[in-house]
Amino acid sequence: MGHILEKFSMCLRVLLGVLVAALAVPVFMQVVARPGIIPVYLWTTELAEFIFVWTVMVGAMLAVWDGTHFDVRVIPDAKHPLLKLFQAGLVHFLIFAFGVMFAWYGIEYAQFGNIQKSTMMRANMIITFISVPISGVIWALFSGYRLYEAFAEYRSTRKATS
Question: 124: which strand partners?
Answer without folding.
Answer: 117
